[in-house]
Structure formats: structure tokens, C-alpha cells
Amino acid sequence: MKEPDNRLFLAFPADDLAPALGRLQDWLALPGRRIPSHQFHLTLRFLGQTDIAQQGALERWLGRRTLPAFTLRLDRLGCFPRAAVVWTGPSRIPGALAHLAEEVGLYCASLKLGPPHRALRPHVTLFRHCAACPLPETEPLVYRPRSLCLYRSAQTEQGPRYEPLYSWPLKG
């Protein structure tokens, strides 16, 4: 019997930043598909297909940790041309975020969830199916995530849909 689709990722929801990100999308007025405001997030780690035992172990491990609060200054726009994604992100990664990403990466490796796709590049996706490079400079947005969430990603005809499963507060 085939396991149900359980493609997971860890991310910081950007709900508080959604109005400012929406204004940024309006200002850019790029072709492609705008990310809906309720789906804005900053991915910490894509986990991929995850079985129930791996998911449970990760949830318990995160539940026992004190997750550090941090502030990001989203001060640049960029694109991933091969993925046709336009994003905003920081030019500098805070130490607390880098350390958390490293710890999560080590624990995920112990669960055999596989290596991350690439080095940590924190960003919030603004548009898909859009490879507009170069991009203009923008005013920085200050982003203070309040929680880390475990999301399930499901593919739909309208694009990916992200379902939050669990949430852990950031403290600091």
C-alpha cells in the first residue's frame, strides 16, 4: 500500500508582513503568478516526502527546543531564473537563523531526510513563473517571525497549496 503524499517543509509564516509584501508585488507589477498573501513564508528547510515516523520524531524534537527569535531586514530583490521565481530576502543572515538552520539540518540528516537542495538562502517568494532579472532596488522591510511551522505542500491546478500542520513559538 502506497503512503499518502506527505511533502513537508519547515518555514516561518510571514502573515504580519503580508500587507507590505502585497504592496511590493503591486509596485513590481511583474508578469507571472503572484503568491497569495496567505501563503507568504520564509522556508527554513524543505523536507520532501516524509513518513509518519520521521514527521513525529521531528515534531517531538522541535517541541523540546527553545527556538531563537531573530529579525531579518529584507533589503534585496532577486530571482532564481531556472525556477522562474522572484523573491525578497536579506543581504545578511542573522547568526541565530544560521545556527537554527544548521541544527535542523543535522537532525534531519539523522532522520535520513536527505541533504538540503542548496545552502541556506532565506527569502520570501513573491512571484512564480516569472524570471525578471535584474530587479530594481527596494526599500527594506523588517521581518520578525513569531513562529516556525511545519507545512504540508500539495500540488493543485492553481499551484502549490501549503497547509500548516504544527507551529512552535520563537523565543528571545
Model description:
The protein is an alpha+beta fold and 172 residues long. 23% of the residues lie in helices and 38% in strands.
Features:
alpha+beta, globular, 23% helix, 172 residues, 3 helices, five-stranded antiparallel β-sheet, five-stranded mixed β-sheet, single chain
What's the gist of this structure?
With 172 residues, the chain is of the alpha+beta class. It has three helices and ten strands; from the N terminus they run βαββαβββαββββ.
Oligomer: single chain
Binned, the helix content reads: 10-25%
Radius of gyration: 16 Å
Strand content: 35-45%
Broad structural category: alpha+beta
The count of strands amounts to: 10
Shape: globular
State the strand order across the main sheet. 3-1-9-10-4
How far apart, in Å, are the first and last alpha carbons?
45 Å
SSE ordering: EHEEHEEEHEEEE
| Discrete helix count | 3
Output mean pLDDT: 91
Low-confidence stretches: none
* Main sheet characteristics: 5 strands, mixed
Structural topology:
Blueprint lengths: L6 E7 L4 H11 L4 E2 L6 E9 L2 H13 L2 E2 L3 E9 L4 E6 L4 H16 L13 E5 L12 E3 L3 E10 L2 E13 L1
Parallel strand pairs: 4-10
Antiparallel strand pairs: 1-3, 1-9, 2-7, 5-6, 5-8, 6-7, 9-10
